[in-house]
Queue: 4 jobs
Job 1
Amino acid sequence: MPGSLRLTRAQLAVVLEHARACAPEEACGVLAGDKNGSVRHVFTMNNSAGSSTFYLMDSREQFRVFDQIEKEGLELVAIFHSHPHSPAFPSGRDTELAFYTDSLYLIVSLMDNKSDCRVFKIVDGKVEEVEMIIVDRQQTE
């Protein structure tokens, strides 16, 4: 699991735009990239739960995204979702349902008409914040 999440301003803008477009429901998606945590592709997804308090990725859409990640030789770097009315911190449900222990979790809060983003490792119910690094462009390996 990467020790930080590295994404471009443009990639973060896609995440924020998706979160705002889905409000008042939670938005969700996947960030794919390399094993060091550098994002190469943002996949916005539908919240099939249609809820403002939790998200559920559509299983068929999730399968297609994970298949594309594998075909492109990328890694699952992070799962992202929004909290339209609460802080950018994992809820009890978020912690309980954090099944991808090798993935980071990016949470976007839209509370008070502001955008706050934080990144976490969630393993065995333990939540640890990690650094989010915003760059102008990703370096290629």
Job 2
Amino acid sequence: MTNEVKNILCIEDEPEMIDLIRLILNRHGFDVQGANGGRIGLDMVKKNPPDLVLLDLMMPDIDGWEVYQQIKADEKTKHIPVIVVTAKAQNVDKVLGLHIAKVDDYISKPFSPQALLESVQKVLNLEITTL
């Protein structure tokens, strides 16, 4: 396992959620940047591609699925794994995300800190640790 710090971009329209995710993941050595909304998030992904994107689906400027499609359509960013973190917790949304859109993982809000950490570690192929 490498000791390289993994950069995570959280694209989310609620600053409190970005702060919560940053608090949970910073404790485990991740560098978490926040993007307040889809447009800012897409700009940040293109300027400085992260190791992982945590993506909310319901945002006022650009819907999360549109952000996801734009990330995956760009040769420079299509390799970046994406975990959807959303309040859209219906089974149909999860099936759409995991099996049709092929996101790397899908976490429903509210989530436990442990569930978030395990998902990030799994998607980045890191050793799973506990809080």
Job 3
Amino acid sequence: MTSVSVDQSGAFTPVAAPLASDDVVDVADIEGFAALDALVSRDRVVLRAASCSDGRVFGVARQLRRRGFRGVLLVEANLLPDQLPMATSCGVDAIVITETHALRCAEPQWRLKAQGERFGYQRATGRNLSSEVG
């Protein structure tokens, strides 16, 4: 199966060859800062997440950048276009998705989400919801 790289602007680029296994780190295997410190000196790190719902990938990416990682930081997971601004704000250079996922979540969707500044999981509203609860 081939892959597609999605950059910070939402543009697609085909990935010609599989990612080097030496660069790939499964976020489920990172248990502490010592594991992150071992990655800081690398030129490239690929953070692999099992699914788009594994939010650890964002925390690990942010912590790697905070600890001084200056190389290329990729995420290999079928994230959703809505997650692109969050990934970018955490220091991710590109997201690698499967070709099948790229067909479901087309490039125009990614480009549209790349233009937005807001990220997060709460809806934007002008109403004070706390007064309506309880």
Job 4
Amino acid sequence: MTENAGAIVSLRGVGKTFESGTVALAGLDLAVTEGEFVSLLGPSGCGKSTALRIIAGLSEASAGVVERAAGDIGFVFQDPTLMPWASVADNVLLPFKLGTAEKTGAHTAVTRALARVGLAEFADAFPRELSGGMRMRASIARALVTEPRLLLMDEPFASLDEITRFKLNNDLLGVWQELRRTVIFVTHSVFESVYLSQRILVMTPRPGRIFAEIAIPAAYPRDERFRTSAEYAGFCRQVSEALGKAMAAAP
């Protein structure tokens, strides 16, 4: 895959039809540039996760062109998918064991990644000893440990309570501002997408395609003042209206 016009990821006319005959994506076009925080927003089953897996190279497109710049990719799944028999540190070390990343300094990188997500004191703990939010932090640390150029996140906070979700949203933005890696974040929450993103791509129901692109030009860092502001409410209303129109445009 090659870089296209400065985009770190570019999809043009991408379609995905599963062996069952289900058409998940049709005519999907998107481009994401270096350092952006972009959310894919849409209802459950609209193909958001499928698009993310195609970007990651975990699934092949049935049609269209997929271009991705060279560099490591970190992937955070909906479930933390931690190895229950391994410590938090060993779980975070896994990309070095399985991948081609330079292994020199791997343990230092694990320590750094755990500190970034607030788990420095839990390196020797096991997943069963952690809360749901802490397990997700460990999963994020594992995705960040090689400091990938592209971070893909598939509804990572969907199963968490609202308070934990808000806290992890803030922590994620802190990490993104520190590292300035490209993030593509899948969510079905209008409120989460507005809070996190520089740009939101609203998708139609299956077969998924981009219906609207909405910029969120609010300044970073974002905090509770933004979350309770009229500006935030206005963006949420704009995105909600676009999502409603996307749903109505479904075939």
